[in-house]
Design goal:
By secondary structure, the protein is an all-alpha fold. Helices cover 83% and strands 0% of the residues. It is built from 18 helices and no strands. The radius of gyration is 24 Å and the shape is globular.
């Protein structure tokens, strides 16, 4: 349920990514995107590992039919996270102007910054309730709330941005951030309603205390201690990624300023990179994400039996499927980068960035299954270490390259490409070292490259043959011909194996 909701949300979330740049331009998207990385950091601090810890303690209490412990866990988690959200929101509002003046070169971002504050306590409550339902093994409320949150956010972001655009692009960006808050509020209210319907009074005998001292006799302080003990390492791991994302946003605009780029131009270029190009590159991960989700229990089961052949086979299947699913998108984004960006954003300038990044995105799609394998095989530390190394290299390259006038924003593009390749190679090396075996995908890589070449030739030929048609018709014809050739080539070369796909999906 959660994987399906994640795919739907990723596809729905792409709607404002297309519409928003058309409404507020690259400049407005840049102002909105500058605030977003800091919001992710703050949310990670408040809620990073809370859903997991709440789910674990609720599941343990639920197995004992101990309703009092469940409610005590929920009360402690809600009090801690909601209180932290309120405090952090108040403190953030107090220092927002100082942060903007210190970290960024464009002061217009301050309006969007202030609108981030209400999101913090709302998401804090939602995170706890999602953990509660996951602990109860009821995935319908979290999944449905995610979809409701996404739909409301899309409508609110577009409506508020369009309404506030009359007052200036900075207010339109602030409206987009308020739209995010509206979506989070809708998702939270749905979770609260589902929780109220699912609870039952204690007098009906649902709480059964075991012999001796009951877990339900634990104090709120001790329950909070258990929650934090579980949540702390998870929060630390996620904080590395979110902090890297935030530092990336700061260093890019600061480096562009050092290269002599005007603040408004730097904001627009950052908006094109993070608000237009990156979302297109991440669209295929809606497919590869579900593979990573399915891989964790499949590998854990095989590893528990010490069945190395099953581990190798399932990992190879997942990587192969990620390659096969991602390769046609990479080819289309590379060959048709400029017309794609003109159709989506009415902005051909982003096409060069997309063309530079598309070939390296294939490494990103393979990275998901490799990271899932390390987690399933009890090596999250290796995944974290590789991510940290990649983040440090990326940030250093951003400072070195983007601050040079001859590179500018394209220096940041190169740094992100290096990060995608480096982290994937490090993950692959960790998996090989851990398992003591080679996954054996050289043949699949060669076949995938051949299919991509055939597809690229078909796309170019079709585009030339339909040069007289409208741009949208020409683009659709080229993509259709390319995907048809790719599918036929993949089947002919044996890359597409329906039985293998079914085994991965069914975890067999």
């Amino acid at each position: 349920m959660l994987a399906a909701a994640g795919v739907v949300n990723r596809l729905l979330g792409f709607v404002p990514r297309i519409a928003l740049p058309r409404m507020i331009g690259a400049d407005g998207v840049g102002l909105y995107q500058m605030g977003y990385p800091l919001l992710i950091v703050l949310l990670t601090v408040i809620t990073g590992g809370i859903p997991l810890s709440v789910a674990k303690l609720v599941a343990e209490a639920d197995s004992r039919n101990d309703e009092r412990s469940i409610r005590k866990t929920l009360s402690a988690a809600l009090a801690a996270t909601f209180g932290a959200g309120l405090l952090l929101a108040g403190g953030f509002l107090a220092v927002s102007d100082l942060l903007v003046g210190t970290l960024f070169t464009d002061e217009r971002v301050s309006a969007a910054f202030r609108c981030m504050a209400p999101i913090l306590p709302i998401v804090a409550v939602s995170a706890v309730l999602r953990g509660y339902f996951q602990g109860k093994q009821n995935m319908i409320p979290p999944a449905s709330s995610q979809i409701v949150e996404t739909v409301v956010r899309i409508v609110a972001v577009l409506a508020l941005s369009a309404w506030l655009m009359r007052y200036g692009v900075e207010y339109a960006a602030a409206g987009a951030m308020l739209g995010v808050a509206a979506g989070e509020l809708a998702g939270m209210l749905m979770l609260v309603g589902a929780w109220r319907r699912s609870t039952s009074p204690l007098r009906d005998g649902t709480s059964v205390a075991p012999a001796g001292k009951s877990e339900s006799d634990a104090t709120v302080r001790s329950v909070l201690g258990k929650l934090l003990k579980i949540a702390a390492p998870v929060t630390g791991s996620r904080l590395v990624g979110s902090a890297s994302y935030f530092l990336e946003s700061v260093l890019i605009v600061q480096s562009l300023a050092a290269a002599g780029v005007a603040a408004s131009v730097a904001t627009a270029q950052y908006g094109m990179l993070q608000g237009m190009v990156i979302p297109v590159l991440l669209l295929p991960t809606a497919l590869t994400y579900s593979l990573s989700v399915s891989l964790v229990p499949a590998l854990s089961e095989a590893a528990a039996r010490n069945d190395r052949d099953a581990v190798r086979r399932r990992l190879s299947q997942s990587i192969r499927l990620s390659l096969v699913a991602g390769a046609p998108f990479v080819t289309a984004m590379f060959v048709l980068s400029e017309p794609l960006c003109r159709l989506l954003y009415r902005n051909g300038e982003t096409g060069r960035m997309l063309g530079m990044m598309a070939p390296f995105a294939l490494m990103l799609y393979v990275q998901g299954p490799l990271q899932a394998a390390l987690q399933a095989l009890d090596r999250p530390g290796a995944a974290l270490r590789n991510t940290v190394v990649g983040a440090v290299v990326k940030l250093v390259l951003i400072v070195v390259l983007a601050s040079r006038p001859e590179w500018g924003i394209y220096g940041a593009v190169v740094a992100i490409n290096v990060n995608m390749v480096l982290v994937t190679i490090l993950h692959a090396a960790s998996v090989v070292r851990l398992l003591g075996i080679r996954v054996g995908l050289v043949g699949d890589l060669a076949k995938t490259a051949a299919c991509m070449t055939f597809m690229a030739a078909a796309v170019v030929l079709t585009a030339r043959l339909t040069a007289f048609a409208e741009p949208s018709v020409r683009f659709a014809a080229a993509c259709s011909a390319g995907f048809a050739v790719y599918t036929f080539s993949a089947a002919w070369l044996g890359l597409i194996d329906p039985r293998g796909m079914l085994r991965v999906i069914l975890r067999r």
